[in-house]
Amino acid sequence: MTMIGNLIRFGRRQLHTIISKEIIKPSSPTPSHLKTHNLSLLDQALVNTFQPFVIFYPNTGIYPSSHDKITPLKKSLSETLTKYYPFAGRLAKVAPSFVDCNDQGAEFLEASIDSTLSDFLKRSQHGDLDQFFPHGLVNQRSNRPDDDDDLQSNGVIPLAVQVNHFECGGVAVAVSLSHKIADGSSLIHFLKDWAKTTQFCSREQKHELLPNDDDPKFIHFEYTNLNFNGLSLGSDECVTKSFMFPNAKINDFKLKVKAMSEDKSGQPITNPTRVEVLTWLLYKSAVAAATKNYSGSDFKPMGVSHQTNIRGRLMEQLPENSIGNFHLAIDILSEMKPESFISEFKKQKLKFDGLSDIHTTFGYLFGIPLEETQRKFDGAYIFTSMCGYSTYEIDFGWGKPIKATVAGDLRKNSFIMMDAPNRDGIEVLVCLGKQDLDVVQSDHELLAFCN
């Protein structure tokens, strides 16, 4: 067994131990005409980082031991990778422009945790999630040994999985996927597909992979090399904290915002969405914190860049199971008043409806200097919504998860929104500088609408 490290958690020693490590290859070879998957212009421009997502399952007694789940998981992962063939390939370590779909496989690790699942969830902080990932592979960080030749092979391994066993028989399935080849929607679609395949593999019957409408769709792009390693996340220290906003309180806030807009002259806000009102509330709180902390400097309130899934917004719509990076930023620069901010948000979203198809859209991006894109990226609060992705429906045959979330410290001044369990609200991961986060955590208006 390989010791990852001894961590001090919950005021006592917690041992996290890797108990197995291997490569899982696709069950069938990738056809020769699919051996090269060209990255789109947006893929190449994105940060060279990994998306860390972890799902927690309690012990439901279906298996005598959580370790009995591993064989079906490995078999189903092998079958699923046949459909998601770029995930089993390799990327260049610097400025990748394509994926070599060579079937070299994904990493699969097992680890044991000397804690019960309930104990961990009750007492853990957001940073405690990082230990569940292969090599600590969270965003831009990794503790993979430089001499780990059998796993390094040629290039970057896009997909790594770690199954973590708790003392009680519960498990945490953690997945790190290269952002160069897929966005959050793609990652969740992969997890749901893998889970569904696992249910078949767990039954004592022959399971044959047959094409269906829900299979992943990889779009062909002509080869283009930007010779660019991706946008930089920056190196400023930050802290990530989770805030939970129940639906009842969000609806109260929506009514409050609507009433505020109706008191003003001009067009009132009609039907503000949960994401729209929370974006304004969090942005307002973050700007107030920064203004307080940097009142003696030249601080100017930054705008908002809201990452938006464009699959269903183009005139020639993409299937929701299109795998890749298919999101664009809505830039919101307006007054801090809610009616102005939310109206501008709605107006900017409508602009995507006029884009014809994905090739035209990405061709337009090619004309924007990368330096300008980085400047806008650095000078904005970044919001991403994963609401509606059905993350709590990912069932490997053990029942639905009790927690599903993104791990790691995000880019400074960034926010990720996700559905709460049973869709009873929205969980928001807030990543800010420590001083700013301290102020936000004491914002009475913000706290009035969250648990």
TrEMBL record:
<dbReference type="GO" id="GO:0016746">
    <property type="term" value="F:acyltransferase activity"/>
</dbReference>
<keyword id="KW-0012">Acyltransferase</keyword>
<dbReference type="InterPro" id="IPR023213">
    <property type="entry name" value="CAT-like_dom_sf"/>
</dbReference>
<dbReference type="Pfam" id="PF02458">
    <property type="entry name" value="Transferase"/>
</dbReference>
<keyword id="KW-0808">Transferase</keyword>
<comment type="similarity">
    <text>Belongs to the plant acyltransferase family.</text>
</comment>
<protein>
    <recommendedName>
        <fullName>Transferase, Chloramphenicol acetyltransferase-like domain protein</fullName>
    </recommendedName>
</protein>
